[in-house]
Amino acid sequence: MKKISLLISGIFAIAIIALVHDPTTSQSDFAHFYEDNNYVEGEIIVMFKTSPDTRSFLEEYTGIGLSIKEVLIPDMNIYLFHYDNARSGPVDALLSVMRNRNVEIAQFNHRFSERVVPNDTRFSEQWDKNNTGQSGGTVDADIDAPEAWEISKGGVTAMGDTIVVAIVDGGQQVTHTDLDTWRNWGETAGNGIDDDNNGYIDDINGWNASSNNGTIPANQHGTHCAGIAGAKGNNSLGVAGVNWKVKTMPIVYGSATETNVIKAYGYALKLRRLYNQTNGIKGAYIVSTNSSFGIDYGQPVNYPLWCAFYDTLGSVGILSAGAGPNLNINIDTQGDIPTTCPSKYMIAVTNTTRTDTRNTGAGFGQINMDLGAPGSSILSTVPTNTYGTLTGTSMATPQVAGAIALLHSGAHSYYIQLMKTQPDSAAKLFKQFILSTVDTIPSMNLVTVSNGRLNVNKLLLKASTLNTTGALNLNASIEGFYDAASDQMVSDSVKVYIRSGVTPYILIDSSKSVMSINSSAVFNFTNVFNSTPYYIIFTHRNSIETWSAAPQSFTANTLSYNFTDAVSKAYGNNMKQVNTSPVRYGIYSGDVNQNGTIDLNDVLQINNDANVFTAGYVVTDVNGDNLSDLDDLLISYNNSAGFVEVVKP
């Protein structure tokens, strides 16, 4: 069944009456309006208390260009209004109408779609996409694919880019009826000419790095991986991939040597770089590579080119999904390639089962293994035009490679535009989206970076909306500025950074405010999500950068954190007790050169200023009395003797 997008043009009377008379409904908290997103911008549905004087009503809103678009239900005084997007934001327009004394209800005109499960004939066997408990499984031990497909089914980005997943493997059946294999329309098959001048002759469906031509073998392993990521959905045939619509590009490594891996990645790099450089005229919008292969116990130091390639791919916007070993080993201590390659653009994947346990034959590692994904007894496409079940981290990895593609299709246009202008930054952000939206499950706790298993519905819910605003209510005392006798501190300006709560801890936002004499301040952010873990980083002009002990989350656009009441509130207990009654802990003072360490250099800098009685708002004034003197020197000296430095994850 095709997805049918409709606009709400009517409201049932019973539902409205229930809403109107619901005593729990409140319009005093507006946070949910900013989180709402699936509506027609420029339109507001209004139910009036009595039959309205529409002329007078419209005169009150000339500033936003309000006009009647349709009278929906005359007997119930329900109208559809249009406002000018150029004159008002959606929430501002809605709130202004809601406050009108004659309005009973005002709301956005939301879009909806039919809820469908794909009609692929063997979808009921795909526990990895929708686990109903079949074959002894645990209900919902899956990636929540049907829920995600209500947001996006794959195919193209919000800006019209055709999405491609590169399957770096032994090949795939390019004619499989349930796969949408990528086709290079700039190339003429079999003429021995590089028609599109991309450096590769006759690369019709991809590239064979071993034989240096466009010949793609119908490999079982590669075909199976391609189907997991992108088997055609809702086509009354076989299975559905993570994406119903996505191009899978086979890149063949052939003989299992490192040179062929590098050449294979080089092809993906060239085509995405061409796409970026020509604004889509040439190349392909490759968003992920799937690498369901590797070297057990491999050490990154021995594979510098291989590992470095993930950073290079990331620089053009490609994330790489890599399979962990099919061994019950800790890759952090025993090694693995590619999953221990130190790249911010590598997503390392282990294998979960239909009961949400880690497959006992799959690798793990709290430092390097990013997340789990279903990889045991996975049904997918195999040659020739048929289906089969395979098990391994090889099957878990294309779930993630496919999720990256689905993310691109469901992401807000803002993020896709960011991918155009800053592909490296956008790729890191997309990785953070994936790791921060997992289902946290016991079997992944402390054995993966994210502590969880892939969830594509949560992923799209996050990426399909723009970040929300958030207010941080923070308590923090600065050692040098704090006076124990009065339990107050000298007020001063500080800056707080928000970083992702999962590696690589990318910078999300920052805000400046003034800490009051009561050691409190409010910091406002414009680029944060609710229910997403973030580290709070406190910085001050001459104090040690201090991280929160653990990631914290905004709820209803608000977060409160208190550094002062326990030393354990700072990461690594990196604070100093500054009062015993009441018990207070303070941020270490004395890092005047802001290099992350309080040492002799800081002491000497303060000493130099103190010798000439430097006064005013200067970094060497460590206690906030507007004078550099012996008191400042002693604070910094004592902390330098304790080798105080930044402690962070």
Task: Report on this structure.
The chain has 649 residues and is α/β, with parallel strands linked by helices. The chain folds into three domains: 5-113, Alpha-Beta Plaits; 156-463, Rossmann fold (3-Layer(aba) Sandwich), CATH 3.40.50; 470-641, Immunoglobulin-like. It is 23% helix and 24% strand. It contains 15 helices and 30 strands. It has a seven-stranded parallel sheet, with helices on both faces. The protein has a five-stranded antiparallel sheet with strand order 1-5-2-4-3. A four-stranded antiparallel sheet has the order 24-23-26-27, with no helix packed on it. Helix 14 packs antiparallel against helix 15. The longest helix has 20 residues, at 258-277. The protein is globular. The two termini are 48 Å apart. Mean pLDDT is 91; it is low at 1-29.
Broad CATH class of the largest domain = Alpha Beta
Model regions low in confidence, pLDDT < 50 over at least 5 residues? 1-29
Full CATH superfamily name of the largest domain: Peptidase S8/S53 domain
The CATH topology assignment of the largest domain is Rossmann fold
CATH architecture of the largest domain: 3-Layer(aba) Sandwich
Count of the separate structural domains: 3
* Number of helices, counting only DSSP H or I runs of 4 residues or more: 15
